[in-house]
Design a protein that fits this description.
Elements lengths: L4 H4 L1 H14 L3 H14 L6 H12 L9 H23 L1 H18 L14 H8 L2 H9 L8 H15 L1 H14 L1 H11 L2 H13 L12 H8 L4 H4 L9 H18 L2 H14 L1 H8 L5 H5 L25 H15 L7 H10 L20
Length: 374
Amino acid sequence: MQLDIFADSRDVMLRNDVLDALHQRDAVSARQALKRLAGEFPDDDTLAGLATLIDVLDSDVATPFAGHPALAAACGRLNDEVEPAARRLLGDAPGRAWVASCWRTVAQQAAALPFRADVSDLHAAPLWLRAGDWDEARRAVERIGSWRRIPAPLTWMAEVRHRADGLESALPLLTELAWLSPGRLADLFRRLADASIDTLRRKFDANFEGAGQTADLAWFPAWVLIEKPGLAPLLRDAQPSRQTAPERATRLLLQILGLERQGNQHELVDRRKALRELHAGLYAAYMRTPDTACLKLMTLPTAHRWTFPARFRRGASGRKSARPIQRLKEVVPEIRRSPEGSLLSRPMASCLCSGSFHPHSSGLTVRSVHPAQP
């Protein structure tokens, strides 16, 4: 039997009438179209979902929520009923975009509700995030006192920074969140779906010597400094938190990276020892860094600019002259003033005493030197 394309497509046409009205957010036209569809095709499997979406458009958007329970009910309905129906009937991406407007409405209704730690996710800020309005989400978080010390609003602001300004802007807050709430950081990583973060996270999970649990993410910022030391300037902007072991390790590594550039061997040894005591596995990972493994065994300082070589010249005085002793006495204070822990002062003093220093060459090859006459 040949099908009548017009007769057999009648349900599609009526269904599309409802969907077109929904896309335009025209509740009156959508309900009229739904009535026609239900009258002719009472068994159509889209009727319940279409009715759910129309009911959302019909809801009272002008009345603020009376309390957190009302907000919880509205969020539950959007999550459990409205968004699944929208994605199924409108398509995944169009459905998400359609529901974003619903989250905006709920955020406006929740604007007056204060932040409560016992129901921390029932606040306007995460609703603005669901709506894709980063500026409103930022303002909602900033109205929360001490938001940077509370896991939930810190998470929201880190997401705002990432989505609005990029990963570099968000790194200090992500660092603080790792120390404060590794679990929330793991959830945020999944939502952000950032390729750079995901690559580092996979490598961290594979190589970090921890318990293999989400709590290990508290050490993620410290590990990142070993893997990507170029990020140190960004992580330095992270504000002090609760001074946990992972935070102290991060601070130590920031100091170590700076001391490596300065060549302060004495303090560098102390910081490395402290890092090893905090987390032996993290210390081992730091020492295995291929680019600097050898230098970490004996870090050379920044070259010290000596002034006394200008006062020395070969053959400038005889063996019975008192001038060499005077010049050597002038050298001693300069050696003592050289950077504490410097590896250069010891060989320099040794070379002077043994008579092997050449002031005009990089090698220690000349057999004798004599102070220059004034």
